[in-house]
Design a protein that fits this description.
Aspartate Aminotransferase, domain 1, binds pyridoxal-5'-phosphate, N2-acetyl-L-ornithine:2-oxoglutarate 5-aminotransferase activity, cytoplasm, 406 residues, 40% helix
Length: 406
């Protein structure tokens, strides 16, 4: 049975949508693996992964099966009841990580909101009302709610919306001395992305994360890792903290967790979780059976040596090619990141031109991302096929060749 829809085009966006996005000129209508087709039938290779969301590409059979089965079983039941997919997913996350408890929500921002509220509540319960300061990194990104833009260190996202959440301190990323100077008895939490994603695919130094862990322990503060972008296999480990060997107290996950179905999770220990007693926090959709069934299928596929080792091998394929393009065309000065979160840093001559490269790439049939104006970002499916990597990189090279000739 097929449903008849009225035809719509890109121009409709400007007629009916709030203009807070500037989507590309074409509309993708179908995806399979790492390929996408637009309304005109043009095929593109997808190196964006829905911004590090489609961990298993488009319409992965295991996810389609999990979603379809759950869609025919139970959609929503609210948190007045619990449900089997949520409990199974929580078990899997707890078994695979430092965490002992999970809280489910619907996005990365909500996972961080829960993390920040938990950190403040723990400090309030244990040490009283003066311990509420959150230390975050300049240029970090934690989501778009008022609390999370206040914590994120980017004024362009937080200015102009009235008073911000108070008690947040920003320090330069990867600067141990600055962090040391900022942490005090008033600090309830330090929050860091193990790799700054939106901030330019900038990985933390191991010594920095280790120092953050020590400083938190010395000052009775909690260490929160925002792994919304780095988690669920993206780094080549299930979570990036496992790559670094530095264990947080609270971890937020979303994006790849659902492989394209909206879900977020806040993971923590039993001792901390117990501070969120009945009634202190919640969300209607959190732990929704559809979302949890899909996320369970994602973790089943991703948390295997085949996929995680594959991420490291595929990274090499990207890195070698991108470094070569960087030299040949003079566009990149460095290729950084971890696993399949890759940032090609623009050379001085190309600074500020990430968007132009994105557009040129799309014109050649390959979708890539930017991470700020100076970094071209790749966040493909973790199971992207080698033929798709090679074909996508060939298209990307054609875009660079045209741009640099012009
Ligand atoms: C995308 C992102 C978020 C926000 O997630 P949403 O699902 O958009 O709310 C938070 N933190 C990091 C590190 C992200 O990359």
């Amino acid at each position: 049975m097929s449903v008849q829809h009225d035809p719509v085009q890109r121009a409709d966006f400007d007629q009916v949508m709030v203009p807070n996005y500037a989507p590309a000129g074409f509309i993708p209508v179908r995806g399979a693996g790492s390929r996408v087709w637009d309304q005109s039938g043009r095929e593109l290779i997808d190196f964006t992964g829905g911004i590090a969301v489609n961990a298993l590409g488009h319409c992965h059979p295991a996810l389609v099966a999990a979603l379809t089965e759950q869609a025919n079983t139970l959609w929503h039941i609210s948190n007045v009841f619990t449900n089997e997919p949520a409990l199974r997913l929580a078990h899997k996350l707890v078994d695979a990580t430092f965490a002992e408890r999970a809280f489910f929500c619907n996005s990365g921002a909500e996972a961080n909101e829960a993390a920040f509220k938990l950190a403040r509540r723990v400090a309030f319960d244990r040490f009283g009302e003066d311990k509420y300061e959150i230390i975050a990194a300049t240029n970090s990104f934690h989501g778009r709610t008022l609390f999370t833009v206040s914590v994120g260190g980017q004024p362009k996202y937080s200015d102009g919306f009235g008073p911000k959440i108070q008690g947040i301190n920003h320090v330069p990323y990867n600067d141990i001395e600055a962090l040391k100077a900022a942490v005090s008895a008033r600090t309830c939490a330090v929050v860091l992305e193990p790799i700054q994603g939106e901030g330019g695919v900038l990985p933390a130094d191991l010594a920095y994360l280790q120092a953050a862990r020590e400083l938190c322990d010395q000052h009775d503060a909690l260490l929160i890792f925002d792994e919304v972008q780095t988690g669920m296999g993206r780094s080549g480990s299930l979570f990036a903290y496992q790559h670094y060997g530095v264990i947080p107290d609270i971890l937020s996950s979303a994006k790849s967790l659902g492989g394209g179905f909206p879900i977020g999770a806040m993971l923590t220990t039993e001792a901390l979780a117990k501070h969120l007693v009945v009634g202190t926090h919640g969300t209607t959709y959190g732990g929704n059976p559809l979302a949890c069934a899909v996320a369970e299928a994602v973790i089943d596929v991703v948390n295997t040596p085949a996929v995680l080792d594959g991420v490291k091998a595929k990274r090499q394929r990207f890195k070698v090619a991108l470094e070569q393009f960087g030299e040949q065309y003079g566009v990149f000065s460095q290729v950084r990141g971890l696993g399949l979160l890759i940032g090609a840093v623009l050379s001085d001559a190309w600074k500020g031109k990430a968007k132009a490269i994105l557009d040129a790439a799309a014109a050649e049939g390959v979708m890539v991302l930017q991470a700020g104006p100076d970094v071209v970002r790749f966040a493909p499916s973790l199971v992207v096929e080698e033929v798709d990597i090679d074909e996508g990189l060939a298209r990307f090279e054609r875009a660079l060749a045209k741009l640099t000739q012009a």
